Amino acid sequence: MDYFTISSNFLYASFIIYLIATFFFGATIRDKNRPHKKSKVGSIGFVITIIGFLSQVVYFITRWIASHHAPVSNMFEFMTFFGIMIVLAFIILYSIYRINLLGLFALPIAIIIIGYASVFPNEISPLVPSLKSHWLYIHVTTVSLGNAILSVSFIAGLIYLIRQIDQSVRSKKTFWLEFIMYSILSTVAFIAISTTYSAMGYTAEFEIPEVETTIEYNMPAIAAPNDSEMLTTDKMPPWFETPGWMNGVDAGRKFNSLVWSLLGGLVLYGLLRVILRKRIAAAIQPLLRRTKPDILDEVTYRSVTIGFPVFTLGGLIFAAIWAQEAWGRFWGWDPKEVWALITWLFYAGFLHLRLSRGWHGEKSAWLAVVGFAIIMFNLVVVNLVISGLHSYA
Amino acid sequence: MKNIKCDCGHVNPEGTVLCEACGKPIESNQHIDGNEKNKLLNMRYEGSARRSKTYNRTIVDKIWMFFSSVKVGVWLIILTLIASALGTLFPQEMYIPPAVDPAEHYRDEYGIIGQIYYQLGFHNLYSSWWYMLLVASIGVSLVICSIDRVVPLYRALKKQRPKRNSVFIKRQRYFAKTQDVSKQDVEKVVSQLKKKNYKIREEQGHILAEKGRFSRWGPYVNHIGLIIILIAALLRAHPFFFVEDYVWVREGETKIIPQTDQQYYIKNNDFIFEVYDENDERYGEAIEKTGEMIPSNFQTNAEIFKVKGEPLPGQDPELVKVNEGAIQVNKPLKVNDLAIYQSSYQLNEFQSMSFKLHLRDDENEESLGEFTFNMNDPKSEYDLGNGYRVVVDEYYPEFYMDDGVPDSKSKYPKDPAFIFFVYGPDIEEYEVNFLAVGTNLNPTEDNKYKLSITGVDMRDVTGLTLKRDHTLPLFMIGAIIFMIGVVQGMYWYHRRIWIHPKDGELWIAGHTNKNWYGLKRDLEKVLEDTKVEMPQDQQELK
Lengths: 393, 542
Fold this sequence. Notes:
The complex is a heterodimer.
Chain A: H1 3-27, H2 40-67, H3 75-97, H4 100-117, H5 135-164, H6 172-200, E1 204-208, E2 213-217, E3 223-224, E4 229-230, E5 240-241, H7 251-276, H8 280-284, H9 293-327, H10 335-353, H11 362-384
Parallel strand pairs in A: 3-5
Antiparallel strand pairs in A: 1-2, 1-4
Helix pairs in contact in A: 1-2, 1-4, 2-3, 3-4, 3-5, 4-5, 5-9, 5-11, 6-7, 9-10, 10-11
Chain B: E1 4-5, E2 11-12, H1 51-54, H2 59-68, H3 70-86, H4 102-119, H5 129-159, H6 166-170, E3 174-179, H7 183-195, E4 199-203, E5 206-211, H8 218-235, E6 242-250, E7 254-256, E8 264-275, H9 284-290, E9 295-308, E10 318-328, E11 333-335, E12 338-359, E13 369-374, E14 381-385, E15 388-396, E16 399-402, E17 405-408, E18 417-423, E19 431-436, E20 439-440, E21 449-469, H10 472-491, E22 495-502, E23 505-512, H11 516-527, E24 536-537
Antiparallel strand pairs in B: 1-2, 3-23, 3-24, 4-5, 5-22, 6-21, 7-8, 8-9, 9-10, 11-12, 12-13, 12-21, 14-15, 15-18, 16-17, 18-19, 19-20, 22-23
Pfam family, one (chain B): ResB
Organism (chain B): Salinibacillus xinjiangensis
Keywords (chain B): Cytochrome c-type biogenesis, Membrane, Transmembrane, Transmembrane helix
């Protein structure tokens, strides 16, 4: 077996291992022991998580050997690595606070992120000259660890919100909480749909006559590229065209994926609502009764205090040093740089707001959600939609 | 100054909320920290007297109040955040193609929103006066809020005494009373605290155990780091600290390096452009999927020369080689304090083109005269001998047709075209020849003679960026101080535990600036196997 195959197998293995660990953490809800005391099922879950993490470390090392450079150079590698770091961040915070529920939420998020990574092409790709530097792995690893620790703050915040928001009446809060659930389900739907169609080998081609380019779709076209003609004849014709003002690279295909995931998310969400006969958050709420809200609030805040310095170091300082070496300027207002600054400003704001009374608890939790949205925006949207020096995959 | 004397005898400055020495709330000032409505005392700044909360009469007071407010600081952060995000909606002007008119570019590419974006000046948002003003305000706020708090906080922590006022103890977040605690138990607690590296101070049986006080200075240290970074950014406006320039050097060419007072020259020996092999075992699949060439190296092999002595005006200077090496992306070359970066290139630029004149209907195209057009040294006329001469009527370095009219996109010879007038003894006036690579677009069919291209010389051009940046060390110092500050403030905690005998009971209280869970675990450990009751969290979220 070559290193590439070994590496892929270990990645699959860790994916499954995390699923198993999630079930163990789930079982802690029914645990007779008092919360926060050591629970056996929880400890088993934690050990399994560590095994999964080690398996992913093996993936990382073998892929590094196979590709001759740190595997953090394209969307597949980068998102996978972000998944590893979320698990590591969870391991760090679990060993401080021993909250089993954190595992029940953190591992699925890591699984979704790894699943999302697998949607991107996973061949080993060569490095363009600007990425050929030791700073590639120094910068990318620290910044994703920082992002991951900050993401744990979102996970704790989410648990807090599900536990605390009053579900007896419909309100703005219940709406936004359901919106978070829907966003997560849309991502799941996107992974499922694109994996299915790529397993089927689906292709449909479009031509844009004006610029003489052809675009290949790997899922059925709901939205065709703007001003295009379909070349493939035996596949589903598009329902409508992508509006003309969306004019980034491959805007049509990306918009189509977005429409698919939003619709898929709607179907999943609808199904769950029909099955549960109440809001998703309301259905989860009773399971969280035994966790103390102030410890969740503490984790939300603590992960920001741990993650913020790491993020600053990787996302701004190391980033600037590398930019100075590669491009001769340490700061150039590239969209990725600006969004790293925005992330930094946001969490700086968060830390200052915690100084005042009234911003603990629920408000902090909402802020943690917004922070995670900003991080994901920078990781996904800035890479794929906004053009700049960091657009890859 | 109206000083306030506390019952314990300590004299506090005006505006003090909690006595610096014993912590007793000073009744008339409780509104300052919002203590009157709450069971617990606000311990954020130890109830010390801050200028911003004490004086609000003069204009200076008002400005000080404004900038020292955390609320204002957070608003400044949010506004900067929103502004920064707006700037990424469309590319900034520096990232659009250099040759286009920005006004048209934004309108054509992004429609009406793009036009508004341009007209609001968002295409240069990060250098706009209002963005600078926002960042500057954050800087002012950093300075003022730090000074406002750090001085009184330092005083309060220095003056605090182990014996605290009972009200202070009772109104801490972690608090418990225990009756009939034996001396041994107290001693046990103290020795446990010492084991946990708490510093113990005692006053008449009252004990203060404290650790990690230095973490309180973290925020102020990191603010100093940020201020240094902002100062470094200001200094960049001055050319002594920051210079940026650009130079194109053709292969074989030696050019003056700009910004060196004509003291240094650079010679481009070779420009190397390499791509990955598509049959590569490792990367082949990915390259095939991309469907285009993936570059693997951009490199200029360069030599650096210094002028020897002082050359006389008009005389070619004598050059001495001082350095040579490869300039690659991620590997700049240094000349004194100037760094040279590989940043652009142009492959296969025309260096010279050779032509010959022959009879138009001569199949062998026998030469009647030849000349070479040198792109670096273009002449307006070439003598071919025997009375034939060629006049260059038009030269288009990068030729294209603009609505049927020939024109040049740039001054760089990437795709040259010429209009030549041929004069000769047997030519009545002159004959027009219109030549581009691969074609001779003769406008008339009645030419007797014809010009043909006999050869071209091409070469690569490298584009190098030059930077002199004396602010880098300052940025680095700022960044290091900032990191020290955040780590100091966030990875360490200031914990205090008070042991307070009162009317036969033993009161215990705990406070930490963050990580209450950690303090709780410390207390649990310290009070283990004693009769002393574990303090309760008086502020649990419901």
